[in-house]
Design a protein that fits this description.
The chain has 382 residues and is an all-alpha fold. Helices cover 79% and strands 0% of the residues. Helix 8 runs parallel beside helix 14. The protein starts with a helix and ends with a helix. It holds the Pfam family MFS_1_like.
Length: 382
């Protein structure tokens, strides 16, 4: 069994479906299922709440009673079944219920993939970076394919492409996997540190608040960029290419972060990320045109990638290894889900007033982040 190849295939196929979900799901609900922008915002916003619940409770529980391989099979199959249920449903209530179920299962595949990768890193000689880069490549490929398919066949192809992608991912899970991933976890013999004890680290609460603000501020970008570009009369074929610009700059940042930012403290990285995020949303609001939107995509390397890297750097240097999973759980649930859920609802209301306001509204999170960092970085030196 070639562990490197197995991991690369899984990352590629999962992130191909992730590209469909992140870039197109809200637009698909609006354009193919016929819900309004505010209704889609409510559906996706509460979906993020369900995702946070799953990340903090369902995924950890399932991981304690199943092997890595069975965890992947369980969440992939459940995601596929729920996705098929979308086909006959057109009502708001029906779409809301199905999306809650979908959000309970599908996003949990992300930590499931990362957990499998971590297990392989502990027990085998694999190159995580190379495998993960194929995941980013899968994301880019999916967005380009969807942009072409929707331009020719319409919005309904988004759902069918997701079903195809999850079917392919499920087929991969049924293939032979590295033996270590089939081992059922044993009850831990040592006392697990609680999440509550994280806050005894004097700087952790402040850092967590900052990343909650910075990652939550991407809510309008993730949910409304597709329909915003449509509103600017951008051809569907080019929308996928434009959305991929951010991913390319994200990849470039991660490739170089360990070489030219080794002397930067997490607080300095977070400050630059907060400033870059503020500038990014201001540019989109002040210059509502396609060229400026493309230019603003370069700032994704700061607003998302740098903030994420800074948090990972902080917990790796500050926390004991036993607490890192707890910190990542809080980060995933609060920064990547709940905060985005709150601003998704706000962004939807602002978008219906004026599309650009949905992006300007993200400053509600980014500007306070700047001041929190300035007020705490010298005191806690994080």
């Amino acid at each position: 069994m070639n562990q490197q190849r197995w991991l690369a295939k899984n990352f590629f196929m999962f992130f191909a479906t992730w590209g469909i979900f992140i870039a197109y799901w809200t637009g698909w609900l609006i354009n193919d299922k016929g819900v309004s922008v505010s209704e889609a915002s409510e559906i996706m916003g509460f979906g993020l709440v369900a995702r946070a619940f799953s990340t903090m409770f369902i995924f950890p529980y399932v991981s304690k009673i199943m092997s890595n391989k069975r965890v992947l099979i369980f969440f992939t199959l459940a995601s596929l079944i729920v996705t098929v249920l979308y086909i006959p449903v057109d009502s708001f209530v029906g779409l809301f219920i199905i999306t809650m179920l979908f959000s309970m299962f599908y996003p949990a595949l992300l930590p499931a993939m990362e957990s499998s990768a971590a297990t392989l890193m502990q027990h085998g000689q694999i190159h995580y970076g190379k495998a993960r880069s194929l995941g980013s490549f899968g994301y880019v490929v999916a967005v380009l394919i969807i942009s072409m398919l929707t331009g020719v066949y319409g919005e309904q192809t988004i759902l069918w492409t997701m079903i195809f992608g999850l079917t392919a991912l499920f087929a991969i899970q049924l293939m032979p996997a590295p033996q270590i991933l089939s081992v059922i976890p044993k009850p831990e013999n040592t006392k697990v540190l609680s999440m509550k004890s994280l806050f005894k680290v004097k700087s952790f609460a402040g850092v967590l608040i900052v990343v909650i603000l910075l990652q939550g501020a991407h809510a309008s970008y993730y949910n409304y960029s597709y329909i915003y570009l449509q509103n600017l009369n951008v051809n569907a074929f080019y929308i996928g290419m434009i959305l991929n610009v951010a991913v390319l700059f994200e990849i470039l940042y991660f490739l170089k972060a360990d070489t030219f930012l080794t002397k930067w403290k997490p607080s300095s990285l977070m400050l630059l990320a907060a400033i870059g995020s503020t500038v990014r949303w201001l540019l989109i609001y002040l210059f509502p045109n396609m060229p400026m939107f493309v230019v603003s995509q370069a700032l994704h390397a700061l607003s998302f990638a740098m903030a994420h890297y800074a948090f990972i750097q902080y917990i790796s240097k500050t926390l004991p290894k036993e607490q890192i999973p707890n910190a990542q759980g809080l980060y995933s649930a609060l920064a990547m889900s709940l905060s985005a859920a709150l601003l998704t609802l706000l962004g939807g209301m602002l978008y219906e007033i004026e599309p650009g306001l949905a992006f300007l509204g993200m400053l509600i999170f980014t500007v306070p982040a700047v001041f929190i960092i300035l007020l705490t970085k010298k005191r806690f030196d994080y």
